[in-house]
Amino acid sequence: MTVAIVRFPGSLDHDSARRAVERLGAPAEYAWHADAELPPGTTSVLLPGGFSYGDHLRCGAIASRAPIMAAVRRHAERGGRVMGICNGFQVLCEAGLLPGALRRNATLSFVCRQMELEVDDAGTPWTGGLATGEVISIPVKNNEGAWYGDPAQARVVLRYHGDDTLGSVDRIAGIASEAGNVMGLMPHPEEACDPLLGSTDGGLVLRAVAAP
Predict the structure, then answer these.
(1) Alpha helices in 41-174, H assignment, sequence order
(2) Which of 207, 152, 150 is nearest to 183 (CA)?
(3) Which of 15, 158, 196, 200 has the most CB atoms within 10 Å of its CB?
(4) Bridge partners of 81?
(5) Residue 38: is it exposed, middle or buried by C-beta count within 10 angstroms (0-12/13-18/19+)?
(6) Are 112 and 86 in contact (CB under 8 A)?
(7) Using CA atoms, how far apart are residues 197 and 212, in angstroms rounded to an integer?
């Protein structure tokens, strides 16, 4: 098994994502945006955060048209697990793999802080072992992190617990595809996998990526 971590020009959280995945016991390999295929043996794909292509046009719009995304789409259509974090979430929405879009935060500023998240759907691979209503702590760091769309068309996995600084519709922090195998979230679970960082709750979400 291999976790493929996709790198776009401007990605900056790929190393943190790889360390988090390997900490959970899974081998990881980078996939470049211009590759036509995912690494052999790929069981899960992780699109990390960053500022792909400098966030020109719309965040994630250019990256969503990269050659590697055709392979990511095929992987998802076969039922393979795909997770997009922050900019990776934006890419998945722009690629049509998840509904809605991400817009400027309500503060019109970059937000970097620890956030409490409430589990809304315990029936996905990403929340296995967590109970509906359970609260976990994972940081956010973004400027365009407010999810916008019709909640009725999204499978809501995580909501911000209490105050939502970003201004997402219905306090939505993370959504999944109807089948549940594709997930996007704005918080950064890879930055919450080490006790030194103040929380290890990110591993509760990322462990589905590391599962065989």
Answers:
(1) 68-77, 87-94
(2) 207
(3) 158
(4) 44
(5) buried
(6) no
(7) 27
Q: Per-residue confidence of the chain (212 residues) as pLDDT tens digits?
A: 899 999 999 999 999 999 999 999 999 999 999 999 999 999 999 999 999 999 989 999 999 999 999 999 999 999 999 999 999 999 999 999 999 999 999 999 999 999 999 999 999 999 988 999 999 999 999 999 999 999 999 999 999 998 898 999 999 999 999 999 999 999 999 999 999 988 999 999 999 999 98
- Asked if residue 27 lies in contact with residue 34, where contact means CB atoms within 8 angstroms, the answer is no
For residue 189, list its beta bridge partners.
none
Structure tokens at 148: 């916008």
Tokens of 64: 């969503």
SS3 168: coil
Which is nearest to 9 in space by CA: 74, 87, 85, 72? 87
Rounded distance, CA 95 to CA 63, Å? 9
Phi-psi region of 120 (alpha: psi -120 to 50; beta: other; left: phi over 0): alpha
Is pTM beyond 0.85? Reply is yes
Query: How far, rounded to the nearest angstrom, does the alpha carbon of residue 7 sit from its chain's CA centroid?
Result: 14
Catalytic residues: 86, 188, 190
Burial grade of 184 (CB within 10 A; 0-12, 13-18, 19 or more):
buried
Dihedral Cα 185, 105, 156, 94, nearest 10 deg: -60
Q: Note whether 3 and 48 are within 8 A (CB).
A: no
